[in-house]
Amino acid sequence: MDDPLIGDTELLRQQRELFVKAEYAASRGRLPEYRLLLQQLGDYPLTPYLELKRLQQVGYLSNEERVLNFLDNYKNTPMDWQLRQVWLTYLSRNDEKARFVRDFQPPGSVANQCLNYRYQLDLELTPTDAIYRAVDHLWQNGNSLPKACDPLLESWQQAGHRTNELIWARLKLAAEGGNHTLIPYLGRLLPESMGYLADHYHRVRRDPANVRHMRYVTGAFPEHEAEIITYGLSRLIWRDPDRAVGLLQNLPATINLSAEQRIYLYQRFGVALSSKNHPGADEWLAKLAPDEHNDSSLQWQLASWARTGNWQALIEFVPRMPVVTQQYSVWQYWLARAYAETGREAQALPIFQALARERHYYGFLAAARLQKPHSLAREAINYEPEEIAALRERADIRRTYEFLQLGRYLSARREWNQLLPKLDGQQQQLAAVLAHQWGWYDQAIFTLGQLGEYDAVNVRFPQAYRSDHESYAERVGIDPNWAFAISRRESAFRFDAHSPAGAHGLMQIMPRTAEYLERKPLSNQQLQHVPTNIRLGTSYLAELRGRLGNNWVLATAAYNGGIYRVYEWLPEDPMAVDRWIETIPFRETRDYVKNVLAYQQIYRDLRGGDTSVFAELMPMEISRAAAGR
């Protein structure tokens, strides 16, 4: 949208057209036309990008002064690295070592880092030991290093810096999540006596069930063997729980796991078995002291007690947790819930009261339990008009705005991400306000989130595309605030969002979902069309709700985790909705449901609603029968 406060919009419209024509002329080599258009552009904010394009094409030594001036003028902008990479590639190909070292800027690509260190060695610009210490760090990579690093690594190795410890550390990285094809190569670098370790690590990486073959564990290097056993069991517990449990319980005496390794395996076993609803899950969780849990095992311990109603265990556990962890809202809520369930209302009340003053899922739950008003705790961002006017005049802000107007969102985000670190806290808040005014809602939301400015509720929860959300939600009979909450959680209202799984648009519609709803395939462009996306998203929410006993909480879980998984998660016996949510096996879906419910409440408040979403949850129970299964 045009913003009259950013300048002469009619002039900018003309300049945008000239800019696109100039780009085309430059790419076609029509230099007279390009130069004429360049003169007509005047001080258009994106003109430097035309110079960038020309220097990328003719950035030879004959133009060195132009290149260096450009890099100096646009340092710490996206244009810097776009030209610097081309320039450094040219210098390295022409063996211009001194110039390369002069113009290299960290961190740079790994290849350029290697070239920089190598040239510094050749030119004797930096003490050798300092460079080799840096190479120690570069070596710690579970994936292949660029060929440009080979000469540097050879010098490093010849100087005696490639130790067995460093080789093993890299082999471990390659085995546990890196490129496993590196393992044989790294194994050949180890002494012959250690070669069997690399072979066994590789077997276990390919199939963790191979950890059961104890004939490959000789006891020659017990610490290394323990690392392989720990890694293999930590994966096998997810694939074959009973076999993994049996192996850990019957390890040979020659395998001595450290205390840290045992704690790690207890955590992994507890989480894996809990997520599979395995009867032995509680046994493994119980092996962990309160301060030995990680976030995942703590969540599953809580879920176990919430599912079974073991309130006394919860009450006894919380005071033994680290003090900081005790204060997390999730543990405060469930401690109060446990007190209430065991008839200790006097102990539950002050905890619920404190939580009810906070704006989040557990705060809203607490307020609903008390039948008291919940807190929105919002605070506007205060600024003087002159402050935001000054921000608008920054060159990088103007470039960002112009890219938005041209529909070049990737370039706009590059500029935005580079400019934010240059601003102080107050200016970053104003930048978020500016993005909100432009309708660039996702960047306004993310910027405030990074700043921790959570109370700027009106900016963090915009009523974006309001008419579409309202009309399509009402057409299918769902709460518009639910639709707003889904869009806010899925994409922060980024209409061109796309996920690695292939979902598109505000409400992150999968192509197969769109085809199911429309009875025909839709293009990615159609899925990113805002009205179409919202129409499909609201229709799908309504359908999920109808298939799940008209329960919008279950539909929310299904929108994220899939309806057939939700069917699997339904308990036979009725369970209070807050208890059920806490037991959702997928962390992503569990957090998703909590966030959407909280966002739905916020939108209901912002849009003038006078009822509580969470009050509606209080009597709700989840079961197969209630969901129509």
TrEMBL record:
Gene Ontology annotations for the cellular component aspect, listed alphabetically: periplasmic space
Keyword Signal: yes
Gene Ontology molecular-function annotations: hydrolase activity, hydrolyzing O-glycosyl compounds
Residues covered by the Lytic transglycosylase superhelical linker domain: 391-456
Pfam families named in the record: SLT (PF01464), SLT_L (PF14718)
Transglycosylase SLT domain residues: 472-572
Name of this protein: Murein transglycosylase
